[in-house]
Amino acid sequence: IILKKGTKNLDPLVITSLLILEIIVLSSTLLSGNFFASMVGDTQRFTGSISLFALVAVLIASSNISLNHINKYLKNLLVVISIVSFLALLQYWNFIKIPGAGGPGSTLGNIDFVSAWVGTSIPLSLYFFGKNRRRNYLLIAYLILITYLLIVIDVKQGILDLVLSLFLIGLFSLRNKIRNILKFKSYVIGAAS
């Protein structure tokens, strides 16, 4: 996406800031005493320069996504999260072994990261419920498995992400109702005066 569409939706100041950030991080990585550790990050945290460069690439790519294509990207994201979660379940059930920081960390290497992905993917999967019965059944099965995974890995971060996401969805859903109630109240007060 970056090579195809460029950075047309990013302000030049943002591009300059990102370039400065990348130069500073690259310099720090090259000048550090342990190049490999700087690239991959602390043991069991996996937050090194590679993660930062990937995050910047995702930021630039996301700035080029049009609203017409957002559903396609969200579906792809849900598929990736499903694969990572399924691998974590297989790891939890001891069917496969994936190196990491312990527990069912899947390909993310850390159960904290997996729980965050799982916690935020539940509201994302709710977005795709619709008139397609087959897809709804798949989503229900997915929600059961992913909720089970969130419970068995027992990391509070994922549960907090889920609660916060559902709260924000609820607040967003209620905003029109609240607005209509306030309009009605102001109409009643105006009519009574």
Proportion of helical residues: over 70%
**Which structural class matches the secondary elements?**
mainly alpha
Mean pLDDT: 76
Number of strands: 0
Question: In terms of per-residue confidence, which ranges show pLDDT below 50 for 5 or more consecutive residues?
Answer: none
What portion of residues belong to β-strands?
under 5%
Q: How far apart, in Å, are the first and last alpha carbons? A: 59 Å
Shape: globular
**Tally of contiguous helical segments:** 8
What is the CA-atom radius of gyration, in angstroms? 22 Å
**Order of H and E elements:** HHHHHHHH
Largest sheet data: none
How would the blueprint of this fold be written?
Blueprint: H1 2-5, H2 12-31, H3 35-40, H4 49-63, H5 70-92, H6 111-127, H7 133-153, H8 156-192
In short:
The protein is mostly helical and 193 residues long. It has 8 helices and no strands. The longest helix has 37 residues, at 156-192.
Walkthrough of the structure:
- This protein is mostly helical and 193 residues long.
- Helix content is 74%, strand content 0%.
- It has eight helices and no strands.
- It has helices at 2-5, 12-31, 35-40, 49-63, 70-92, 111-127, 133-153, 156-192.
- Helix 5 (70-92) crosses helix 6 (111-127).
Keywords:
193 residues, 74% helix, 0% strand
